[in-house]
């Protein structure tokens, strides 16, 4: 029972490099989310999607892009990595929106040096 | 004022102790409330929902006071395995009354239970 799968688990980037964080869920959830968590802080919403083809910005979208071509996948793209993007990134999904419980992936630890 | 505020702790308690965490939220229109648990270097996982009438799940009791915009979590008979960070989570609504499930997280309260 996979749930929400994130890859890679760890990554080190140089300033200015690009990468895509992958997220896939096998629960047929319509809603998917990307969060970042800085040390000692709560999670902050980067982008979210309410279904295939529909995405919108969260609290901290600058420096990131997303796409949602299928229900299962919700990749997060960093175009020009900056040290401020060093963080732990969590992908989550939920069946419903406002009343739904969110299921999280194991996270991707990203360092930008 | 932060949207969701928690006492970051840390709380260090002996096994068997009772410990309580508090959380306040600023948006009176918030709809749903949860406590999530996050183990060190792991993802958050739902611990329990919080209802106006209060709810209990084994050793855990959650309460909501809408008038004071206050949420609490009580853990009785603490176990070593309860050591974790406890995240207060509030779900808001957006214009038009719909919600996309925007969770607002508190910074978390660290609990360490020692022998």
Strand element count of chain A: 11
Profile the largest sheet of chain A. 7 strands, mixed
* Low-pLDDT regions of chain A: none
User: Can you count the beta strands of chain B?
Assistant: 11
- Please tell me how large the radius of gyration of chain B is: 14 Å
The class by helix and strand makeup of chain A works out as: mainly beta
Oligomeric state, counting identical vs distinct chains: heterodimer
Overall geometry of chain B: globular
Order of helices and strands of chain B: EEEEEEEEEEE
Helix content of chain A: under 10%
Secondary structure class of chain B reads: mainly beta
The secondary-structure element order of chain A is: EEEEEEEEEEE
Shape of chain A: globular
**What would the average pLDDT of chain A be, to the nearest integer?**
92
Low-confidence stretches of chain B: none
Compact summary:
Chain A is 0% helix and 50% strand. Chain A is mostly beta strands.
Structure description:
The complex is a heterodimer of chains A (113) and B (115). With 113 residues, chain A is an all-beta fold. In chain A, 0% of the residues lie in helices and 50% in strands. Chain A has strands at 4-7, 10-13, 19-25, 31-37, 43-51, 54-57, 64-66, 76-78, 87-94, 103-104, 108-112. The termini of chain A are far apart. Chain B is mainly beta. Chain B is 0% helix and 52% strand. Chain B has no helices and eleven strands. Chain B is globular and about 40 Å long. The chains are: A mainly beta (113), B mainly beta (115). Chain A binds chain B through residues 31, 33, 40-45, 48, 50, 56, 58, 90, 94, 96-102, 104-107, and chain B through 4, 8, 31-32, 34, 42-46, 49, 87, 91, 93, 98-108.
């Amino acid at each position: 029972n996979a749930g929400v799968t994130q890859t890679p688990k760890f990554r080190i980037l140089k300033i200015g490099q690009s990468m895509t964080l992958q997220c896939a869920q096998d629960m047929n959830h319509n809603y998917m989310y990307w969060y970042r968590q800085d040390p000692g802080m709560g999670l902050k919403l980067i982008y979210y999607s309410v279904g295939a083809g529909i995405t919108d910005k969260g609290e901290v979208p600058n420096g990131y892009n997303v796409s949602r071509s299928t229900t299962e996948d919700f990749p997060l793209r960093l175009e020009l990595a900056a040290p401020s993007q060093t963080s732990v990134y969590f992908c989550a999904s939920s069946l419903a929106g406002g009343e739904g419980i969110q299921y999280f992936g194991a996270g991707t630890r990203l360092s930008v040096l | 004022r932060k949207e969701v505020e928690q006492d970051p702790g840390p709380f260090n308690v002996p096994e068997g102790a009772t410990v309580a965490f508090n959380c306040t939220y600023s948006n009176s229109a918030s709809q749903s409330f949860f406590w999530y648990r996050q183990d060190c270097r792991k993802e958050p996982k739902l611990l329990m929902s919080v209802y106006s009438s209060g709810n209990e799940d084994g050793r855990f009791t959650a309460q909501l006071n809408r008038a004071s915009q206050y949420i609490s979590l009580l853990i009785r008979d603490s176990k070593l395995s309860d050591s974790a960070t406890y995240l207060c989570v509030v779900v808001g609504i957006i214009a038009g009354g719909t919600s996309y499930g925007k969770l607002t997280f508190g910074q978390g309260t660290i609990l360490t239970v020692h022998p």
